[in-house]
Amino acid sequence: MNRKEIREIKKRFNPDMDNFGHIYGCYVNAAHEIIAYMDSPTMLMGNEEREMYMKTLKKTLSGALGKNLLNVEFSTAQVEDSDEHRLLQTLRTSHLSNETMRKILFQRIIDNVDMGDVGYVILLASDSYDVPYKNGGSDEWSEESTDQFEYFICCLCPVKDPKGALRYLAEEQNFRAASTGSILGAPQMGFMFPTFDDRMTNIYRALYYTRSSADVHQDFLKAVFNLDKLPMAANTQKNAFDSALADSLGDECSMDVVKALHSRIGERIDVLKGTGADDAPEIHINELEEILMKSGTSDEAIEKFYDTCKNYFDGEEFFNPENLINRKQFKLETAEMNVSIDPEHAFGIKTEIIDGRQYLMIPISEGLTVNGVDVKVSDK
Fold first, then answer.
1. 63-110 confidence digits (pLDDT tens)
2. What residues does 245 pair with on adjacent strands?
3. Which of 84, 155, 252, 311 could form a disulfide with 190 if both were Cys (CB 3.0 to 4.6 A apart)?
4. Which pLDDT band holds residue 17 (cuts at 50, 70, 90)?
5. 65-97: b or e for each residue (b if 16 or more CB lie within 10 Å)?
6. What is the DSSP string of 289-326?
7. What does the pLDDT look like over 245-272, one tens digit per residue?
8. CA 192: distance to chain centroid?
């Protein structure tokens, strides 16, 4: 799914609409024991409660595409005959009304996901969307529909323990000790099945959500999708790219090379965003090789980089450039210091060897502050 298709589905999570008939759930404690099953008709909920549920479920479709939202793909064999796909399809076509299948999904997640000392709730909600279409070349949406998109959302939300607090009691005109009660946190992981690709149903894919860019929760992915090839977390991709550079370039991995890569990848991201494309940005490994070549990297090192990169990224040749660099800072670390610089000003940084010792040279434009004190730079 692309950003535009995700935005269209997110509009369905409106508390004023009655498209989500029931919210199903399973409350699990930290010992992996089921505390309760839930079946809540939305029409019996108060406005505030329904709005909170919609807000929580909607977060499963939030975040950056390619970082928090990942398109996961089933193999043809899985779609034709597999327990995991059959379960998801049955839940979808029954609009989650099949209690036995709901409990099977709950148990698969419970048996495989470890949230440490935290209890959690698994939420499920189903929707049938009569997909509108445009008449000819008109920009006007037709009220009629020729396609129905049936899907469901699943998310796992941690439960925060009750905390004591002093609460004001109006009848006593005083504050008394009271528990705030257990609170349902924001989803940590979840998915939508199937996907809404080209505004049509695609049972070969699911849209997976992870709140953390550092963890895709592989245990959850394996339990629900049983994928042969699991997606890499955004932070893992960054670390893999950094390692591939250092391991393959060796002594040729200079400050100039890293600056050039950071700058050119950043430019690539800006160009892709400037096109207004709704898909996640992509950069091919050949484009990275071209940057290295223009930076003076040897053919031998570039060839090694290609092989190392494919090895670290499990054969992939297309990468999300936003996961390869940090656009917000250019970070320099040594055993003695840790410095972060705005990437726009990284071009002036250089390294030098003076009297046999390595130095990091950072130009200063308007002034220098040390521990909050403005200091003068001597010309001596």
1. 999 999 999 999 999 999 999 999 999 999 999 999 999 999 999 999
2. none
3. 155
4. confident
5. bbbbbbbbebeeebeeeeebbebbebbbeebbe
6. HHHHHHTT--HHHHHHHHHHHHHHTTT--EE-GGGTS-
7. 999 999 999 999 999 999 999 988 888 8
8. 14
